[in-house]
Design brief:
Length: 273
Amino acid sequence: MVWPFKPRFSKQIARIEINGAISGGTRKRVLEALKTVEEKKFPALLLRIDSPGGTVGDSQEIYSALKRLREKMKIVASFGNISASGGVYIGMGAEHIMANPGTITGSIGVILRGNNLERLLEKIGISFKVIKSGPYKDILAFDRELTPAEQNILQELIDISYQQFVQTIAQARSLEVETVKSFADGRIFTGQQAVELGVVDRLGTEEDARRWTAELVGLDPEKTPCFTLEERKPLLSRLLPGSRQVSSGIGAGIDWLEFEMSTSGLPLWLYRP
């Protein structure tokens, strides 16, 4: 049986949230949501970003998908409490960007961290024997210091990733590369400062961004609703609404720990306070 009352997606604004650290799970969910937005032929998309950033490749894939979708519809990004590093990069996929005056944004740069437990291992009498095919196969091993040659290799990797970041912002915001480099040194700044730097277009709340999005496609800003595409919640959360707050807090902690462990030794577009 075909349901006679189909939702009029042409009269609604699609809405997607990007929350927390950006990783493979985020990429998969957002790309699926973007595909749905395109298939349902929404006239516009409101992208709400509240993220400190994350992995480089996943951020780049989301950005690329947004850039392709932007050829078919209007996209407005709304920066929430924080939209830093990879969150900024993803925002560059939107045609227009709005932030709160106090939004924490910026942190444009790349970071790579490894752990050196050499002195601790010596104290407890543990050592490792390594057989490797080349001198750099165990680069960033946690039981020794980096060699000067390894530092040069990793620095070059970071520099290339940084150049990609800077060039994307320069292109998306119609800025000179040297202008972007003047503030793309890892510093954070407010939404108000971001407007002055040219990274953000306007100051305002998510509701202001929704109204702006509606106006861009000729819809009534007073009446046009948002249709949020979100990840399906676990059965327990749907059956026991009271359990959501507790489970979400524990889940967020576990997710962050998993992210830290899985990205150790990877270059990141991530704000680490």
